[in-house]
Amino acid sequence: MADKVFIFDTTLRDGEQVPGCKLNTAEKVELALLLEALGVDIIEAGFPISSPGDFESVKQIAAIIKNATVCALSRSVEKDIESAAAALKGAHRPRIHTGIGTSDMHIKHKFNSTREAILERAVAATKFARRFTDDVEFYCEDAGRSDNAYLAQVVEAVIAAGATTVNIPDTTGYCLPHQYGEKIQYLIDHVSNVDKAVLSCHCHNDLGLATANSIAGAIAGARQIECTINGLGERAGNTSLEEVVMVLRQHADLGLYTNVNPKLLNSISQKVSDTMRMPVQPNKAIVGSNAFSHSSGIHQDGFLKNAQTYEIIAPEEVGAEGSKIILTARSGRSALAHRFHKLGYQFDRDDVDALYEEFLLVADRKKKCWKKTSTNWPKPEKLFPKK
Ligand code: KIV
Ligand code: ZN
C-alpha cells in the first residue's frame, strides 16, 4: 500500500517573498483557486500580521477555498497568532503555522536567548494557537543546522502541547540529502510521541539541493513536503512543487504518492510566472521551455527512433506542449530529414547528405539572439583591460 505525501504549497507565502514577486489580493485569490484545482492539500496563503494587504488576502482565500486546508504563518508571538486566527476565521479547514528558531545560531544571534527559554516559548505558542484551531503546525526554524538532540526535545514538547504537524525546515539550504534524511530518521527514532504528528520537509535551495533533501526526508518518513511552483522562494528558492510531484511519480517504487494532477503543472507554472513577473529558466526541470527539447544529433537520432531513449517523462503527462527537435550545428542528418518530412519534402539519402552539408554551414554561423535584459553590461575592455 502506497503512502500519501501531503503537498503544502507556500507559493503565496515563501514564494511571494521573492523581491519583485509581490502579489495583490486578487492575484493571490486567483492563484489559490488554481492551486486548489491542482490538488494541493494545504495552501499557505500568507503571513497576516505582516501587512493589512496580506491579512486581507488570507481572509479572502480562507472564504473561497473549500477543498484544501488554508494556512497562515505566525511567529511564536501572541499577537501574530491572533492575527492569523482572525484572518482564517471563515476557513473550512484553518491551520495556524507558528514556530521559532531552534539552532544555536538563531537562539543566540536572533533571540539572544537560551535553549530552555526557546523551548518554553515554543510550547506556549503551540498551546495558544490550539485555542483557535485543532490544526496547528509548528516550525523549528533552521532545523537543518539545529542540534538533533535539542530538536527532538522541541518536537516532542510541541507535539505534547498540541501540534499536529511539525515542520523541520532546512531554512538556509545547508544540509546534504543524507544528512537531512538522517535528521528526519533521528526524530522518528527519538521522539516518543512522533506518531501523533506529521513531520514536514521545508527545504531551501541555497546549494541546489532542496528537492533532493525533501525527497530524502520523505523516504525517511516525513509525510508532508512544503514547496512552491517553479521553486520560487527566499534567496535561491524553495523546493519546487513540480519536481517533487514528478520524482514521486517516476519512482513509484518508493511507495509514496501525492494528490497533485500532473497535467496541470505546466499551465500553473506559466500562470505563476506571468502573475509574479518572474521568468522560468529554460532548463528548469519539468516546466522549463527546454525540458523536452532535443538539440544534439546523438539525442535526436535516438529520440526519433524511440522517445523514451531520451525522455523519462512524456511531455503530455505534465501538460507541456510536446517534445521539440531543435535544429542546431550539433544536429544530425536524421533530425534534418525529419524536419524536411514534416515540411512536406521527400528527399533521398544522397539529397539529405548534400543538404546536410549546406545546413551545417548555415547552422555554424547562427547564434541565438537572447533578449538583452540589461543595458548596463560591462564592455569587454572593462572586464579584460589591455595590459
Ligand atoms: O524557511 C523557513 O524556515 C520558513 C519558516 C517560516 C517555515 O519559511
Ligand atoms: Zn522557508
Task: Compile the SSE list and pairings.
Blueprint: E1 3-4, E2 6-9, H1 25-38, E3 42-46, H2 52-64, E4 69-73, H3 78-87, E5 94-101, H4 104-109, H5 115-130, E6 136-141, H6 148-160, E7 165-170, H7 177-190, E8 198-203, H8 210-220, E9 224-227, H9 241-250, E10 256-257, H10 265-276, E11 293-294, H11 297-305, E12 324-325, H12 333-342, H13 349-365, H14 380-383
Parallel strand pairs: 1-10, 2-3, 2-9, 3-4, 4-5, 5-6, 6-7, 7-8, 8-9, 11-12
Bound molecules: 3-methyl-2-oxobutanoic acid (KIV) and zinc ion.
Name the features:
amino-acid biosynthesis, manganese, 13% strand, binds 3-methyl-2-oxobutanoic acid, 2 domains, binds zinc ion, elongated, eight-stranded parallel barrel, single chain, acyltransferase, 41% helix, 2-IPM_HCS-like, 12 strands, TIM Barrel, two-stranded parallel sheet, alpha/beta, 387 residues
Structure description:
- The strands form 3 sheets. Strands 2-3-4-5-6-7-8-9 form an 8-stranded parallel barrel, surrounded by 6 helices. A two-stranded parallel sheet has the order 1-10.
- The protein is built from 14 helices and 12 strands.
- Helix content is 41%, strand content 13%.
- The longest helix has 17 residues, at 349-365.
- Helix 7 (177-190) links the parallel strand 7 and strand 8.
- The protein has 2 domains: 3-276, TIM Barrel (Alpha-Beta Barrel); 293-371, no CATH class.
- The chain is an alpha/beta fold.
- Bound molecules: 3-methyl-2-oxobutanoic acid and zinc ion.
- Residues 14, 169, 171, 202, 204, 234, 238 line the site of zinc ion.
- Pathway: Amino-acid biosynthesis; L-leucine biosynthesis; L-leucine from 3-methyl-2-oxobutanoate: step 1/4.
- One of its GO terms (biological process) is L-leucine biosynthetic process.
- It is an enzyme of class 2 (transferase).
- InterPro entries: 2-IPM_HCS-like (IPR050073), AIPM/Hcit_synth_CS (IPR002034), Aldolase_TIM (IPR013785), LeuA/HCS_post-cat (IPR054691), PYR_CT (IPR000891).
